[in-house]
Amino acid sequence: MGMTRDLVAFDLETTGLSPKGDRIIEIGAIRFSLDGGERRDLQILVDPGMPVPLAVQRLTGITDPSLAGQPSPVEAVAQLADFCDGADLVGHGSVFDLAFCSKVAPQVFGRRDAMDTLELARILMPLEPSHGLGRLSQALRLPHDRPHRALSDAVATAALFHLLLTDAAAIREETFGEMRRVASQLESPLQRFFDLVEELRDDPERLRALPGAADAAGMAPAQRLEEGAGPVPAAGPADPWAAEQLLSGSLADASARLIGPGGPLGEHPGYEYRHAQEQMTRAVAQSLERGGRLLVEAGTGVGKTLGYLIPLALWAERGGGRVVVATNTVTLQEQLMEKDLPALQPLLPRPIRAAMLKGRSHHISLRRFRRYLRQTDVSSHGADLDAVRFKLKLLRWLELTRNGDRAELHLGGAERELWRHVESSRDDCLGPDCVNWPNGACPMVAARRAAVAAELVVTNHALLLSDDPEEGSLLGDYSALVIDEAHHLEDSATRVGGHRLRGSDIALTLDRLPELIDTELNALLEQSREAAHRLFGEAKGFLADRLGGGEGAPTGSLALTDGVLEETGMHGLLRAAQLTIASLRRTAEALRSADPATSLALDLLPQADRGGEELAVAAASLEASATSIDDILIHRRPGHVSWMELRAEQAELRDAPVSPGEGLGSGLLDRARTTVLTSATLAVAGDFGFIRERLGLRARTDELTLSSPFDYLSQAVCVLVTDIPPYDDAGYEPVLADLCAGIAERLGGRTIGLFTGYGALRRIRDMSARRLAGAQIATLGQGVDGTRRQLLASFQANPRTLLLGTSTFWEGIDVPGDGLQCVIIAKLPFAVPTDPLVRARVAELADPFGAYILPQAVIRLRQGFGRLIRSGQDRGAVVIADSRLQTRDYARRFLEALPPAAIFREPAEQVALRVADFVAAGRGRPAPEGGESELP
Questions:
Q1: In 3D, which of 362, 359, 367 has the Cα closest to residue 434?
Q2: 571 Cβ contact list (under 8 Å, min separation 6)
Q3: Any idea what DSSP says for residue 407?
Q4: Are 608 and 740 within one domain?
Q5: Which of 151, 724, 742, 810 is the most buried (most CB within 10 A)?
Q6: Residue 881 belongs to what domain range?
Q7: 739 and 695, same structural domain?
Q8: The total number of structural domains that make up the chain
Q9: Same domain for 694 and 816?
Q10: pLDDT in tens, 127-182
Q11: Burial code of 825-836, b = ≥16 C-beta within 10 A, e = fewer?
């Protein structure tokens, strides 16, 4: 293919997001030549023939009067068509712009496409946290003086395109050749881009000739990718005075001196001494010195991570032994390793060796990736563009990554599913037989070796729970264990001890072996695929019938009790399960006994000499799937509960231990000399009885409760809505939607709503959005408008937002300052009583509600309340819109467990005013008529 000589970078501004109902209001474009010719600009204001929404006017600065008398959309797009004639198009998110152009001029733009700098940036700059044009322009120092104006956006797009060409031209020859091969599987703008780069790699003068090259080169590519990307440098020697002081006296005294008033930690900007943090530090240090177990509830703001890290680090530095910290979330793991430990290291007598150990699936398997890379992405069903993009992104990422951890990639929805093809997986690992194992090239192996050599290991609950010393411990011996986010430990043990199987899991194993040349083996694989498809189809159909759900696919779960298994409708499903088990085991046996030399196209494998091992691990994976089906549907395991779920139109087979925590107290939690369990929410109104019972912690466990240092009486109020209808009443959701919108209007956004399910969340989102559109306040819903990470980033970037979330938003959300001023709790977070696991756990309890359901809900409510106040300067309100707090005897249990904020009882129409008054004044004003204040 000859080189494209002319390119046009273009952008549109529009009245909205839909080409069907919205109109173009501005076109901007620049035309430039790869031969270094003169740049030409095009800028056209367009009369849309309709009012420009106020939000768009504010964003762009384009007003209705400025568009009066300007060319119509048809005339303007015709000018753009003439301007682009004979040139290739370049755009950022170009599908959006081309859709508008195609709507106006289908004969010109209906079949045109563009090289998309958004798509290319995601591939070539995978480490960038955001690929929006504004964020990239700022990070890469691109010319972009008027964001959200079409010509400025076009100029920035052209500069970014140049930078992407430059980056691609600098990629190693072997990697670039593979990227070009993958892109060439389909005729597309991606293929044209890599063809361009191929020609430019041999002619760098053409790169420098591009218009805007000097502007785009504010930083050289290598410098840009390395800046701020390296690991935290090793700390140098600590101050001699500090070292001498820390080396003397008891561990508790030394830890307290480091964290106390006048200590070296106090010299850090923004650090505030907290007495409760010193108390925690002393308690952990004393436990380390004498051994034993300690439960610590450390309220929001105590600073529990440094509270336990300081004595742990000093303990390891003094030779007390290796220490392990286990968290529930990867977010907290990364905070400990990337923020807390680096702040602490320079203050120690010497830096300690620390390592982070995540689960296998967080790391790429180079062997699996190379096998996946060789699979075609074009079939009789068409091209898999998502797979092509994903492979290109990973090829580039492997040139840049520091540790092969997927966290660097910021994977989107489709990419998370594709990652399953390449993640390190126990059931698809050759172990020491893999070429990447002995030299540590495998990121998972490198992480494990670093952990073995470390004095302090930061890991997660799941890996900790699955670590078996009798099978070769990954964590090795350790003298001290701290379990953070300990209120989740039972849930983690539930997941580790159970099965979870989907049809796609079996398909993933069967798809590993596209290199099979043995027709009989291929037939067996196809039989297993059909059997699994039939089984999960039967499960989906049975669940859909039982769950109902009205319009759309239902969601929910169904316990596989004796009664359910005996139903007539289950006969076909159980028969399909038995046939699938037999088929999978038959295929597994055939794979184990097959001769790789006559069964596999060995030259297509990552390691041609390991064909037998490839067959063996695939066989073991199919056998494991068969065992899971058998355990869940045919021979249910004692002490386990089995169930089926329907989620996102996929059926899942599940089982889990009913009481996974029973053995922890005399097992895992006794393994180390010292074990500390901590969280902001472990107790129910000061009583640790619930967590003790769930984790098997009976005798020999000390307790410590440390209240939050925040002044909740002056920083927060809790508002109970007195006239909210019951949540199962038809009037509940309209009232709640008005409540959410009214509060968000009063506060200018800055509001998060917490829900216990997606159905109500979506409906409230839609109702609130209609009211808030005129107030220029965005309404975002989890599962509707993006992922948790995307929604939180958007909320932090634009506080004029009402954000509605469920499940994961109840904890781990940290928005200090004025960005968050109100948390609305739509419903008390009781477990769903029909949940199979809940039913199994309460079946033998004399008081199921009081012994399990209520304390679990109280802890969850405390987590939700904790989202509001995150610093000493925060101020805001928590609104609880559940009528049961007015009518049920157990309401006092909830209220007594909340932080000591003033409680107001208000009718729905007064709530927004109460909240706004408090936020504005910093204290509760006298209640309006009908309102009531309580000070707990």
A1: 367
A2: none
A3: G
A4: no
A5: 724
A6: 712-934
A7: no
A8: 4
A9: no
A10: 998 898 998 999 999 999 899 999 999 999 999 999 999 999 999 999 999 999 99
A11: bbbbbbbeeeeb
